[in-house]
């Protein structure tokens, strides 16, 4: 049975290391989530390499948290919209 997911719970799962896997499994986007996180990791390394330490670290931190949250919310809303009421 397919159930709607709570977006708040999905975001909380996304913030806790390794529990993001559960969030992506619940909306059947595990592979997309893994690929997105690999892309974010590469982007964070590039940011750290190009921008001085203090600013690069802050920007990398923001990117590494906000990007997964954005996609978790977006994909969870799409998941909930695809389920008939």
Describe the structure.
The structure is a single chain. By secondary structure, the protein is an all-alpha fold. The chain is built from 4 helices and no strands. α1 runs antiparallel to α2 (20-26), α2 packs across α3 and α3 runs antiparallel to α4 (53-82). The longest helix is centred in the last third of the chain and has 30 residues, at 53-82. It is elongated.
Defining key terms:
85 residues; mainly alpha; elongated
Short overview:
This protein has helices at residues 7-15, 20-26, 30-50, 53-82.
- The parts where pLDDT drops under 50 for at least 5 residues are none
Distance between the termini: 13 Å
Integer average pLDDT:
92
Shape: elongated
Percent of residues in beta strands: under 5%
Question: How are the SSEs ordered, and which strands pair?
Answer:
Elements lengths: L6 H9 L4 H7 L3 H21 L2 H30 L3
Helix pairs in contact: 1-2, 1-4, 2-3, 3-4
